[in-house]
């Protein structure tokens, strides 16, 4: 337990602000990229595939006078499976108990009916709300003005902030607005903490990220990755075994690839990034398995951590 006199987690510091911020929006609006940028490092995987994020992932912005805990959430959508229903529930739980909600829209695609549906549900949250118009790097100044106008018609937001999460443009303004809305409070995590996600879960997500970049159509939705073994050996080697779950044998063949080329390449890419992020040598073993229709089966979802 931290010693309050030493200024550890939970200790009140004069002038210090802290709080929790839910980052919500439709799939593929750039929520995870935004969170990674705001906290200054990778805490969430990213891809151009819908529903990349499947859990509420916390990323911590650590400033000298403030600590903000961002909760990156799955894309809020019209569910077609039990998994989709559970992911929407994760989002609603996230925004129901935070100090601020960031509602992210894709300005380059335009504010549409899907955003209106999310905004309508979000109005039920009692916290203040800021609308973030993302992807301005793909827009002209006139496009930005049109997107801001469209976002303003959604109603219920204190601020409308144009940003490019990919390039980092507009994020200093956004950080300032967020910190200004935090109440006086203690740091919830030790200084330097970037995420509270357990390393085995983060490893599984990194493997899934590499797979998403190599698959197409419906297959990305059918992929789940679970870290089965995670051992730190005495010689310093980090030994990891992970299982890649798909819903059909044909999908397993795609994940493995001809002669195992796909799963080998994915393993190499994931291992290299894990070594870079963790600062140690890694042995990573991947195995593909079939869990029939796991997105629709409650028992399978429970077992896979959803």
List key phrases describing it:
single chain, 7-stranded mixed beta sheet, 3-stranded mixed beta sheet, 33% helix, disordered N terminus, alpha/beta, 306 residues, 9 helices
What is the global morphology? globular
Class from secondary-structure proportions: alpha/beta
Number of strands: 10
Helix content: 25-40%
Indicate the mean pLDDT. Answer: 92
Distance between the termini: 30 Å
- How do the SSEs run, as a string of H and E? EHEEHEHEHEHEHEEHHEH
Beta-strand residue percentage: 15-25%
- Any low-confidence stretches, pLDDT <50, length ≥5? 1-7
Question: In summary, what is this structure?
Answer:
With 306 residues, the chain is α/β, with parallel strands linked by helices. The protein has helices at residues 31-39, 82-95, 113-122, 141-152, 171-180, 199-212, 249-256, 261-278, 298-303, and strands spanning 17-24, 57-63, 66-72, 100-106, 129-134, 159-162, 183-184, 224-232, 238-246, 282-290. Residues 1-7 have low confidence and may be disordered.
Explain what you see.
The chain is 33% helix and 22% strand. The protein has 306 residues and is of the alpha/beta class. The strands form two sheets. Strands 1, 2, 3, 4, 5, 6 and 7 form a seven-stranded mixed beta sheet that branches. Strands 8-9-10 form a three-stranded mixed beta sheet. Helix 6 (199-212) crosses helix 8 (261-278).
Secondary-structure map:
Layout: E1 17-24, H1 31-39, E2 57-63, E3 66-72, H2 82-95, E4 100-106, H3 113-122, E5 129-134, H4 141-152, E6 159-162, H5 171-180, E7 183-184, H6 199-212, E8 224-232, E9 238-246, H7 249-256, H8 261-278, E10 282-290, H9 298-303
Parallel strand pairs: 1-3, 1-4, 4-5, 5-6, 9-10
Antiparallel strand pairs: 1-7, 2-3, 8-9
Helix pairs in contact: 6-8
